[in-house]
């Protein structure tokens, strides 16, 4: 693949992880970067051979930039994606795509108006394992589905400062609960009924329990928390003929399908045990080069629908993002 040149908006922990993986392939290079702390941007630039800029506009418009990767805290996604689109650059934006569904709707409309590529960096759905689960469900591999349970309990409130900061839309919903919500949505579509309860402390949600009921009558149960490890991270989809299951399902490149007493199929995707960001970035670079304006893997409507689901969850649990930066 021809070398793809990225501008990184945001240079924190995740940006370092992503840049390290994709540049190691020699198929991607980071040519420019911006974050509001210029010293941090300079350190990142030195680590990955990029140029740090004092403004986002300079970084986005730097010579040779093929695409912009927005990897800031959630509260800044909207303004930087909008800026990149207005400057005519394709954009890959980290999940959660924005803070509010209305912001996502506006960005999608802008991208469509300008016919510029826009995609959510929801790495789970660039994963071969997650797409194998979708294939098994579509093929009725375990018969009629009777139950679906997703847990995502990781004591990650101190993972990064943004996670516990209400001014940056911190909390469980946008950081981790987005994964099981998206997983269920991608398998069964928009829920016809949604019920949520949550725990809120110091202006952020520490976790929520969500029931998503779909048109086929199935109810998926989601339990997520950044405050404890109860239940860890497990997926179980049970049918009248078997079960699909996985540990660390949002990231693990391995899932299992059991049918009856004797048939067990373990799917392992190519590459590392844990999803890499390379699948995602290779796919997005190829789609941009192809001239697409949205990803085949994560359609813009899917991104918008999930954001509006999370709007409803937030309203039901009484979470309000006050005084966002």
Word description of this protein:
Helix 4 (74-86) runs parallel beside helix 5. The protein has helices spanning 13-24, 38-48, 56-60, 74-86, 101-114, 128-138, 172-188, 278-290, 300-317, and strands at 4-9, 28-34, 51-52, 67-70, 91-94, 118-121, 145-153, 193-201, 204-213, 219-225, 233-239, 242-247, 254-259, 263-268. Helices cover 35% and strands 27% of the residues. The longest helix is centred in the last third of the chain and has 18 residues, at 300-317. The chain is built from nine helices and 14 strands. An eight-stranded mixed β-sheet has the order 8-9-10-7-11-12-13-14, with helices on one face. A six-stranded parallel β-sheet has the order 3-2-1-4-5-6, with helices on both faces. The chain is α/β, with parallel strands linked by helices. The chain is globular, with a radius of gyration of 19 Å. The protein folds into two domains: 4-120 and 277-299, Rossmann fold, CATH 3.40.50; 128-275, 2-Layer Sandwich (Dihydrodipicolinate Reductase, domain 2), CATH 3.30.360.
Summary, kept brief:
The protein is an alpha/beta fold. The chain is built from nine helices and 14 strands.
